[in-house]
Amino acid sequence: MQPPLIVILNGPNLNLLGTRQPHLYGSATLDDVEALCVDTAEEFGLAVDFRQTNAEGELVTWVQECRGRARGIIINPAGYTTTSIALLDALLASDLPVIEVHITNIHRREEFRQHSYVSKAATGVIAGLGVEGYALAMRAMAGIIAEGRA
Ligand code: CA2
Fold first, then answer.
1. CATH code assigned at 142
2. I want to staple 40 with a disulfide (CB 3.0 to 4.6 A). Which of 6, 25, 116, 135 is the partner?
């Protein structure tokens, strides 16, 4: 039997991780984050499909494609967190458990970062724990799937 697939989606500018603003986002690159997620997936008997895009429409399409294919979505929507009703609608329509991850604690940053449309579709939100938040989200998703709750 195939391990349950978790799709991990990353929004705009996260391709710059580890190359700029390390005081905010740390020194790990997006490739490092993918490796962390692959390792964590192995630990919990999951498979991962890890992606990043700068395009809102592509993110929406990828969420739509999760239906019937994936068992859960972990998403760092980055700049689309606070703007994208289209992304929220796609996540709601996916009927999958969603965990929202932010590397930084958006609640202690500028006010404009503190409202999330995506949270309306999220089972849980992890913010402020650096890239380790992705591994914690994987662990939480493994529990959600094992217990059959969403
Ligand atoms: O804390 C997070 O993970 C954010 O989702 C990151 C977004 C920001 O718009 C959100 O408010 C919080 C920004 C992603 C840009 O990432 C960069 C990484 C390194 C260098 C430059 C940008």
1. 3.40.50.9100
2. 135
Based on the structure, what is the number of domains in the chain?
Answer: 1
Ligand 1: residues with CB < 6 A are 13-14, 16-17, 20-21, 25, 76, 78-79, 81, 102-104, 106, 113
CB 56 within 8 A of CB 87: yes
Q: Could you read off the pLDDT of 96-139 as tens digits, one per residue?
A: 999 999 999 999 999 999 999 999 999 999 999 999 999 999 99
Q: What's the domain range around 126?
A: 5-146
Q: Is 103 labeled as ligand-binding?
A: yes
Sheet holding 72-76, edge to edge: 47-52, 5-10, 72-76, 98-102, 124-127
What would the pLDDT profile of 23-50 be if each residue is shown by its tens digit?
Answer: 999 999 999 999 999 999 999 999 999 9
